[in-house]
Amino acid sequence: MADFTINANGFGSFYENVGNNGTDDTVTVNIGSGFSGTITVDSQPGDNEQDDTIVNLPDGWRLQVVNLSEDDSENPSFKDWSYEVLNADGQSVGTLSIRSNNIQGAPCFCAGTMIETPEGPVAVETLMPGDLVVTRDHGPQALRWIGGTRLSTHHLLRAPHLRPIRIRAGALGAGVPATDLLVSPQHRVLVRSTIAQRMFDAPEVLVAAKQLLMLDGIDIAADLDRVDYFHLLFDRHEVVISNGAETESLYAGPEALHSLGRVEMEEIFALAPALRDPGFRPQEARPLPSGRKARKLAMRHIQHQRPLVMANMH
């Protein structure tokens, strides 16, 4: 396994070529606040090679998908992605082109997670499109789409950043979650507190699990030898109840959609054609603090010895 890093923090063209070398590769792209120009990751994996790409952005920056294609001539297949790089003011400062087997990961639940439905808790892997799921804001809602991804032992060894986060029972607040909860690192959980109110002028926010690792009872699940992830999509971004904790459904923004395969994306676009527009941003169920602000929120809860979920904030 080989690791490569692109540090793009100035004007210019940044390039890395990897793959077809008999081993698995990981390319980490660190985009700095001074970046402008072009970045190209040209990954050419041979059969049975896995090349992963991780992109780190400054707070407030985002990637806007311009084009996607997928080539299944290799095993595994790879994706060609073209992005505009937008700074915190929404201005385009450059482009990013990636050819890779895998690019980050979408927010998702692990198999075995119990999702609240009108008939009671149901294991996420047994849900089907059309099934009703209890949502915090809109009552029972029909599930529009469910997707699944299996990561093997070999894949988790190659891409440890995709290992799930385990949130122990009671780690978020009194009885929240009711039992241990496993989610992907990008999956957001609901934080409800006076601290969130002061920081974001909103009593509730959704924070990625990986930003809460400094808290007791929230850790990387390093003991798992494989994981099955599931994505739940509704007509809108929703807050659902998983193992007794309030968490998000799939937020179909470009950052999440870019990690899905071509077939999965086409299925979602057929259900929600507006998502084809790279400038379209779905309505967020709650504010989504950036990574730096989310970590600051977690630290303040530690400093003030306050739970992430306060029972009397409804």
UniProtKB/TrEMBL annotation:
* Hedgehog/Intein (Hint) domain residues: 107-253
Mention any Pfam family matching this sequence.
Hint_2
Instruction: Return the SUPFAM superfamilies for the record.
Output: Hedgehog/intein (Hint) domain (SSF51294)
Top-level taxon of the source organism: Bacteria
Q: What is this protein called?
A: Hint domain-containing protein
Origin species, per record, is Paracoccus aminovorans
